[in-house]
Design a protein that fits this description.
With 315 residues, this protein is α/β, with parallel strands linked by helices. It contains 9 helices and 12 strands.
């Protein structure tokens, strides 16, 4: 498989949200990376992510290898998801994001691997998509000062915004450059599968050359829902977790259908399998290490089942 970015192809990686189930996506990506024989940033020109997918996308775009991201997930998921209250979950998420991304802003991303991080502007009920390159930006991304990568925000803040699955987490206050501050929440409310937004950016970049476009869309696995623990039972009265997971699944399904209706001829490969039955039950706040490792293996198996098709159409 050719590793270098080809002039003839424009390859896009799109990563769903799903909390702890991001380890499934990492399983898919580990197999992809192994077949490429190089970091994914050497292969994809644009990487998009929502929620947990935004963490993975940002690290990939910064040149991280998948094994290192996976180790990071196994270390931090039990800590973040082990907290009971939205406040404490958000504090742990903030700590982790600040450690990972330090003081880096969107100028830290290379023009060779552009990125989009999807969140929802809760105040105005509209998308807030943090982008790294002027090439991706549509008119609404511009401020009075012009096109500003990531609205002038730190990577850490954008990732926290995308991951703020309110009310499971707190809202994230965002302070853009020369724009009004706003509260942001999880991008899964509008585009848990962000490939439709990624596709629109790619079309802006490519213009009429859409035959160059290849999109790999990676889900977080479809699993039977596991009820929450007694430690978090105060949420049960409101069915918050089940409600949120239904919302993000609906969001993913909607965006997949939009792609098929509006752009039926564009090559979009979707990797996500279904796992139903008692032994597969899990949820977005899964913190059991053995279950996380099992989901990672599920992701690797999902890629292997489609490997010939993926490698043929994404070459």
């Amino acid at each position: 498989m050719q590793v270098a970015k080809s002039v003839s192809d424009f390859k896009v990686l799109s990563l769903d949200g799903g909390g702890s189930k991001g380890v499934y996506s990492l399983g898919v990506l580990k197999e992809m990376e192994s077949n490429i024989g190089a970091p994914l940033s050497d292969y994809f020109s644009l990487v998009y992510g929502t929620s947990t997918g935004s963490i993975i996308a940002a690290l990939i775009a910064l040149g991280w290898k998948i094994d290192d991201i996976y180790d990071l997930y196994l270390e931090h998921i039990p800590i973040i998801m082990g907290e009971a209250s939205p406040y404490d979950k958000s504090k742990q998420l903030e700590r982790c994001a600040n450690e990972l991304f330090s003081k880096k802003n969107f100028n830290s991303f290379s023009e060779n691997t552009m990125i989009g991080i999807v969140a929802l502007n809760f105040d105005k009920q509209r998308p807030a998509i943090f982008k790294s390159s002027i090439r991706q930006m549509h008119n609404k991304n511009y401020t009075k000062q012009g096109a500003i990568p990531g609205f002038g925000c730190m990577i850490s803040d954008a990732v926290q915004a995308s991951c703020s699955a309110y009310p499971i987490f707190k809202k994230k206050r965002i302070y853009p450059t020369n724009m009004e501050p706003f509260d942001a929440v999880d991008g899964g409310y509008i585009a848990n599968d962000p490939s439709f937004y990624a596709l629109n950016d790619a079309l802006k970049i490519l213009g009429d050359e859409i035959d160059r476009l290849r999109i790999l869309s990676v889900g977080t696995g479809k699993y039977d829902y596991k009820t929450i623990s007694l430690k978090e039972r105060f949420y049960k009265n409101f069915n918050i977790y089940t409600f949120f997971e239904k919302i993000i699944r609906s969001s993913s399904n909607t965006n997949q259908e939009l792609k098929e209706i509006i752009h039926p001829n564009i090559c979009v490969l979707r990797v996500e399998d279904e796992y139903y039955g008692q032994r597969f039950k899990t949820n977005m706040i899964e913190k059991n290490i053995n279950k996380l490792k099992k989901m990672n293996k599920d992701g690797r198996d999902s890629f292997k089942k489609m490997s010939n098709k993926i490698l043929e159409r994404m070459r």
